[in-house]
From TrEMBL:
The keyword Transcription applies. Gene3D superfamilies: Chorismate lyase-like (3.40.1410.10), Winged helix-like DNA-binding domain superfamily/Winged helix DNA-binding domain (1.10.10.10). It holds the Pfam family GntR. This is GntR family transcriptional regulator.
Length: 265
């Protein structure tokens, strides 16, 4: 049974004169309470009409705030059962880093568990072939994995490996070995990478695997990794749950008058 924890919000916390819409103000208040654990996992939120009376705002405003929380993957809304918090503030969050990317990726492989969803050999699409510097239609291994943190879905990964590189390891090892370790053993240890980070909305199939609502925000990282000879050996697209992963980057300036910031080496 969901826990019933009193929701304490003062009407003074809602500013009708603010340029920020009322639904956004309520969303921000509830999100903060969920993220800091005040409204913990499995807490049942008050009914929409009760929040309406508490704050003196319209039920439509409350309903939209609740729907936004559901889209963000923080609550589950079910007719007849109300709105329940599904975000666990006590669960650990993985932090990625530009400064120690390769070491961090290796460490991530050791701190999380992997479920292999699919592994097949196929002809590379034009885009994949170009990124791996292969001939059009060349054979590649396509690997789809679900990574978990404390048994909770954490990231959805789609990886392409040139077939001659993939021949150096057994498919079964993909469930209990870091892919970076397998590439190292194959003689193609990644030493550099080019990556793009963006935000995306969870497609229904991916959302179902990650345990979030369709349309929930995901952090999407696309990365092409190269070995010591400069050969691309891995093309990976990783979709991370926004509530389980953050990316950290340290910037500095050589002096106070420098206009551009640079990543710290």
């Amino acid at each position: 049974m969901p826990d019933q924890v009193p929701l304490v919000i003062s009407p003074s916390e809602i500013d009708e004169k603010s340029s920020t819409p009322l639904y956004q103000q309520l969303y921000d208040i509830l999100r903060a309470k969920i993220m800091d654990g005040t409204l913990g996992l499995n807490t049942k939120l008050p009914a929409e009409q009760d929040i309406t009376k508490m704050l003196g705002i319209s039920r439509i405003t409350v309903k939209r705030s609740m729907n936004e929380l559901a889209v963000a993957g923080l609550v589950r809304r079910q007719r007849g059962n109300g709105t329940v918090v599904i975000y666990d503030a006590s669960a650990p969050t993985i932090r990625g880093s530009f400064e120690t990317m390769i070491d961090g990726l290796t460490r991530m492989g050791l701190e999380t568990t992997v479920q292999l969803l699919d592994c097949t050999m196929s002809s590379a699409s034009p885009a994949i072939a170009e990124s791996l510097e292969l001939e059009k239609g060349a054979s590649v291994q396509r690997i789809v994995r679900l990574r978990k943190l404390n048994d909770e879905p954490f990231s959805y990964l789609v990886t392409y490996i040139p077939d001659d590189v993939a021949d150096a390891y057994d498919d079964s090892e993909l469930t209990n070995q870091s892919l970076i370790r397998l590439l190292e053993r194959a003689g193609h240890a990644p030493i550099s990478a080019e990556q793009t980070i963006s935000a995306s909305a969870a497609e229904p199939a991916v959302a179902a695997v990650l345990g979030v609502a369709a349309g929930s925000p995901l952090l999407r990282i696309h990365r092409v990794m190269r070995d010591a000879k400069g050969r691309p050996v891995q093309n990976i697209t990783a979709s991370y749950r926004a509530d389980k992963f953050e990316y950290h980057m340290r910037l500095n300036r050589s002096d106070a008058h420098q206009v551009e910031w640079q990543t710290e080496k």
